[in-house]
Batch of 3 targets.
Target 1
Amino acid sequence: YWSVMTAATAMATGAVSFFILRFLFGAGEAGAFPGATRAMQVWYPRRERGLVQGLTHSASRLGAAIAPPIVVLIMTTLGWRSVFYICGAAGFLWSLWWYVSYRNLPEEHGMVNRAELERIRGFGETGEINRAAVQREGADVPWGTLLRSPNMWAIMCAYFTYVYCLYIFLTWLPSYLVDFRHFTLVKVGIFASLPLFAGVVGDTVGGVATDWLLKKTRSTKLARRSVAVVGLLGCAVFMVAAGMTEDAYTAVYSLTAAMFFLECTIGPAWAVPMDCSGKYSGTVSGMMNMAGNIGGALSPLVFGYLAQYDNWGAPFVVSAVLLVAGAGVWAFWLDPDKSVVEPHHVPVAVPAAAE
C-alpha cells in the first residue's frame, strides 16, 4: 500500500491531489515502526531490544541522509515524477523479499535452529525452551485501559517532545542554513546532512547504552530513563547553543551534536513499548508514534511562524524548553516497569536466562 501511494504521487495533477495522495501515503507509512517493534519483540531477547531499535532507526536516518543527492540525480536526468515511480518500485521489491524471508515467529522460520531459539526465548523451569515467552497479538486491544493509563500518556508526551525537535532537522534545516546562516547551496548539501549522519551514530550508541545498563543493573527503569534523560538534556543544551551563537559554523556543529544526543533517546523510547505492554507492543508504539507525529506536525508551523519575524533563534529555544520537559517526563513520570495494559502488573515474563 505504501509503495502504491508512493508511485501514485507521480500522477498528481495539482496541489489538492498531491496533498491527498501524500496523506494516504502517510497512513501507510505510519505502520512501519510499530509493526517493526512487535516483530523485534518476538524475534529478540529483552537484553537486545534497545540495540535492535537503535539499528533500525540508524538505517532510517542513513536513508534520509543519502536520499537527497540520489533524488536530485533522478530528477535532473529523468524528471521529478520518476522519483516516485522508482521509489515505489523499490518498495515493491522489498515487500516481495519480506514476504519470502520473514515469518511472524522464530518458531515458524525454517532457518532458525534450536540454539538460536534458545537464545531468543530462554528456558523454562523444566529446561525446555520457554514457549510462554511468545504472546500472540489478539484483536481485543484494551483501548479503555490504555487511554486511562497515566503511563501511556507519559510515553506519548515524552515522544511528542522528541519528534517536535526532530522535525526541525527534517523540515527547516536547509532553509535555516540558507536564509539565516547564508551558506551556499553546495555547502547546505553537505552541512544539512551532518546532523543526520550524527543521528545514525546516536541511534546505535543509545541502543547499546540502554542494553548495557540493563545487563549491568538489571533495572529496566534505570537503563531506559538514564539514557533518555541524558539524550534529551544534551540535545537541549546544543539546540540553545545553535540558536544563540553568531558564528554559522558553530551553529552547524552544535546542531550536529544536538542531533546525536536527540537520537540517543530512540533505543530506550522504542524499547519501552516492548517492556510495558506485552503482546500489545505494536498498538502502544503506534499510539506513541501518533503523539510524536502530532508534535512533528506542529513543529514546522511554529518554526515558520517565529522565523517570519526574522527571529531564527527562538524556535531552537522553544524546542529546548520542550526537551527539558520531556526529560522531566522520563525522570519523574514514565515508568518502563509499569504495565499500560494491566494496572499494577509488570508484563515482563522473561526468565533470567533470557535477560
Note: The CA atoms of residues 12 and 289 lie 28 Å apart.
Target 2
Amino acid sequence: MKEIKTLTTLDEIKAFSDPYRVQILRCLKQFGEPATVKQIADEMGEVPAKVHYHVKKLEKVGILELVYTKEINGIIAKYYSPTAKSFAIKNSDYES
C-alpha cells in the first residue's frame, strides 16, 4: 500500500468525492485490514448490494484493490483494501 495516492483524472476525483464512498473508505481504515463487501455492509448497517456497487466504482479507478479471495462454505469471499493510506486531489485541468 502506498503512503499517498494523487488522484488526477476526473473519473478518480468523481469516484472519490462521493460521500458514501468516503464512508466505505473510512470503514476499511477502521478495520485496519482487508475486508469483504459483506463485512463493510454489516459495519455500515447497509445492504451488501449497495456497498458492492460503490466498491466496484472505487476499484475501477484504482482507489480500492482486490487483495485476495478465500473460499468460505463454497462461496468465494473477496477482500478489498485501499491502494493508499491517504488520497490527494490534483487536477491540472483547473490549474491557472
Note: The mean pLDDT is 92.
Target 3
Amino acid sequence: MQPFFNQVLQAGNPRLAATFIPKCTNLEPGQTITMYEKCGMRVKAAEEAVRLKDTEAWNRLLEAAGRNTAEGREIERLGATVFKK
C-alpha cells in the first residue's frame, strides 16, 4: 500500500493518500506520523504520536501548528494526558 500512498501524494491528492496510511503494513515505528505530516494532517499525526508515546514528534507537531491556533490547541489537548506531568 505504501507505493499507492506515494503515487497519490505525488499526484497532488494528500487527502486520498492519507486513506492508504492505515492500510500500510511493515512500517518503521513513527513512519505513520511522517506520512500524515506529508499529507498536511498534523492533528492526525499528533494522534499517532500520542498512540506511540512519541514526545519528540508531538512537541514538533505542536510547535509547527502554533500553540495559539485551533490546530495547536487540538494537538495540545490530545497529548495533555499522556505527555504533561
Note: The mean pLDDT is 93.
